[in-house]
Amino acid sequence: MKETWRFINSGRLKPYENMAMDEAILFGIINKNDPPALRVYDWDPPTVSFGYHQKIKEHILLDKVKEYGFGLVRRPTGGRAVLHYDEVTYAVISRTDGILAGSVLESYQKIGKVLLATLHEIGIDATMKDSMPSDKEQKTWVNPCFTSASKYEINYKGKKIIGSAQIRKGSALLQHGSILLNHNQELMAELMPTKSNKEKETIKKLLFRKTIAVNDLIENSLSFNDFVNILKKNFQKHFGICFSENGDLTIYERQLYEGFKNKYNIN
Question: What is the sign, positive or negative, of the torsion defined by CA atoms of 151, 152, 156, 160?
Answer without folding.
Answer: negative
